[in-house]
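Key idea: predict the complex, not the pieces.
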Amino acid sequence: MAHAATAARPPERGLDVYTQKVGMWVFLCSEVMFFAGLIGSYVVLRFGASSSWAEPNEVLNVTVTAINTFILICSSVTMVKAFAAAEAGDQKGIKTYLLATTALGALFLGVQVYEYYELIFHQSWAGSHGFTPQAGLYGATFFTMTGFHGFHVLLGVICLGWATIRAYQGHWGADNTHGLEVLGLYWHFVDLVWIILFTIVYLI
Amino acid sequence: MATIVAEAPGQATGHAEHEQSFLRKYIFSSDHKIIAIQFLFLTLFFLAVGGLLAMMMRYQIAWPDQPIPGGGILPESMVASGYILPEFYNALVTMHGSIMVFLAIMPMLVGVYANYLIPLQLGTHDMAFPRLNMYSFWLMVPAGIITLASFWVIGGAAGAGWTLYAPLSARPDLTGVELGQVMWLVALIFIGLSSILGSVNYITTTINMRAPGMTWFRMPLTIWALFITAILALLAMPVLSAAGIMLLFDQTLGTSFFLPEGGGQPLLWQHLFWFFGHPEVYILILPAMGFVSEILATGSRKPVFGYKAMVWAIVAIAFLGFIVWGHHMFMSGMNPTLGLSFTVSTLLIAVPSAIKTFNWMGTMWRGNLKLHTPMLFAISFVALFAIGGLSGVFMAATPVDIYIHDTYFIVAHLHYVLFGGSLFALFGAIYYWFPKMFGRMMSEKWGKVHFWTTFVLYNLVFFPMHGLGMVGMMRRIYDSTGYAHLEGIQDTNQLITVAAFGLYLTGFIFAFNFFWSIFKGKKASRNPWDATTLEWQTPSPPKHGNWDEVPVVYHGPHEYSHPDVLDKDWLAQNERPDVVSPAAGSH
Amino acid sequence: MDWALPPNYSTFGVQIDQLFWIIFVITGIAFVLVEAGLILFIVKYRSRTGHKAYYTHGSNKLEIIWTVVPALVFVVLGVYSAGLWADIKNPSNMPEGAIEFEVRAKQFEWNIVYPGPDEILGTGDDFEVLNQFHFPAGEPVIVYLEAEDVIHSFFIPELRVKQDAVPGMRIPVWFDATQTGEFEIACAELCGLGHYRMEAAVTVHERADFDAWQASRALAQ
Amino acid sequence: MSEAGEHTASVASSDHEHEAPKYMLIWLYLFILTVAEVGVALLDVLPKWVIVVSLLAMAVWKAVLVAMYYMHLKFEPSRLRLVAVAPLPAVAIMIIVIMMEYVL
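Result:
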């Protein structure tokens, strides 16, 4: 029984991290589980339940996607640069890097749309024309996983666009970095998921 | 003594929101207390709806050869010339389970009480993310509307059971349900999102916003339970959402994740569903355990027996909850070797449950028991949860499960845990925290009437179901009279049905008491139960922002009958030890 | 309704029933302990004026006792269950030389494939009978369960047999009926509109009668 | 025991002691690893299991780099790191146990 009565005590320390950041990390935990559900199903369906599965590079355009992966990685580094610029109070840097991140994110989406278009209309699959979500388990898992990742990128790009507009209004600065850091966490997470997806869907 | 209900708008709270329109204040409010009350009304409504579906089911089971009274008001697609149709019966089975789990019990435990109690009991002004909290409520509303609407679309509501086992749930040609199944999945995704947003809030608030002095092991057990529950929901719900989305694609896009014709795996659905489903079971019971611990301590005027053991038991249950899901699948064709490991983990999880039960009894031992309505519900929770827990041992022993799996024994078990457990605790919690929520007491006399009628009728309904299960009556059957081994059980079924009707009617006693007390109940003081936790040290109801000045916590959560305190038998968490003197007590 | 399990006709059913009643006794004791304790406490410690509750935060000794005792009981139960479970369900423990059938479940009927007089599945003398399952008593029987559309569950209460039939899988189930009798197969897993009436007749014959029945059916095909 | 969390105060509690130039170095690592991954996969000269294991290792390596540096986990208090890795056991249990269904 601690009976040490001191007059004024600071609040409990919690994680020593501001609340929005904790909240984003907690939210990312649930995102991990969401993608684990999708990726886990893919792993089980492909490797567990001995079904026939085509080699990825016979169906998918690995080169284009590798470039796309690189685009997303670049967007991660520009995002973190934007945050660093905010910490340093470098207004020009914030604007430039945020704009670059948004553009790279949008470019990634554009390439993905192009990839889908090519697969659905120009790729052949099991003798028939078009690799679609109906093209067996391969098509179903491929489009579900990459599609939901793309959806997350889309949400990220929308938020980044908003953050960029705010940057041009001078919203961010050395005294206001939390929003950028939290958005950055989400954006890097989306990048991280793509790193895993790219490897197990396109390469293995 | 009459309380000083601080009506003056809280100026020191730092919330510049007093001049709000009605819409912002009561409808699209971000005040955790208002959101909790919104959840309370919503979930009580769905509790009534879910119960009504159960009544129709019970009528059909008891008198399959007689038209249902009043069935004429339902469309021909549900009740044809007075008789419940098998497809409607399947919809009743499915939607009773789904509504009770996802729209009544779970949001009532978490949406209402996590929202209401976490900021108050931790001593903070509001949730970490008030607006997110509002979204979490307003996502439930469309989910509820979609669910109710699905009864009236062509093909009726979902009919593949609340567990949505594929391929039945994935192929409309096999159920006869077209849109209903899809609508239910969409509603489920809304519910999942709401629950995830809620959990993010509860976890962040608990981790980061505790009042000074509110260390982890000074948190009330309710908070511990709600915190661990939020972690379970955070990690389990997304898996259901992922699986639900794949099932949705199977239904609508023509994929075949779970359909063997296209190479899919029906068992994968069951694994994913129960990976979510078993933690979900604990989501439905842990908060109830928290409420009961607290009400028992207050009612017994004693600290909770073995507080730390209670905390570790909650943690252990939650952790083990992620590795026992296979026990729902012993008969599913799952690899039998896997079955072995699930048996062991399942029996292990009975240990923390036993610890909790005995510690509750330890809390009552040598107490000074005040048998008010919340206390009665809490004690009967222990009594009924014990039955539900013990009947679970039969299923965990796999060879016995071969026989009782998917029989009424399971129905009895799950209702002892969910109704006798969660719902009894919830009734207790409603009576207990009602004064704080609405500033008035619920009628104690009608509360006792409600308790005794519910308790007796409840046992009449669900205890005989163990017997039905032993005889071998299968779950979810529309008409059991065609089976030789089920001859002679109709009397029991009719008894159960009559008792069930009575049980439903007791709900009206409660509803009457509830609504009457909101307007006409006796005014409540700050602390009508002489309780120790922080929420009782605020006015009833607390104002927007809860505190003028955040309280400082000096004691553990349940300091009752402390030998050094002479004038009263409780010590509030924020009472300074050096100030407590024989003259200081005021209530 | 009797509070009893239906009569048992199966070899391993004896052990299942035994285990059921062992658990019944163990949980019965716990049940009485808890409920009697609660009633006792309510009567004995009911609030009285001037009385103050005994202030305690718990007792480590007691808590260890009621952690260890249930844990031991459950470990013993678990080990015993595991052995019996493996005997019944593990495909590698299935008896050799058993007579084999195939059961194909579909909405809402049980299709029984008989091995025919040569007692080998997959040969020319196999034949199918809808909703009628005949087999001999006193020797092990293996049923290969398949499902055509949705998940069904093959349940014969008197034989203490239950197993889901899953589309895309072929799941073996074995049992050994101790005596002749007539029962029903029920479906124990919600399988659609006609779930409640998905039943089939089970007839357990003496070996000679079964041979005669099978021969007559094989001829009729 | 009771307040274990209280005492394990993390050393690097101040958020950002890392210097900015490192970001570009990490970017270079990520770029090289991606090239290496594509190379290993497309050249297809190694035994299948070596390819799979090396690809997974490189993917995890990249993911850890992103989490540690771009998401600043390396510079966060250990308790926040605990939050970040909390779901990983659940993920492992889910995938491994479901796989056992088919592999055992």
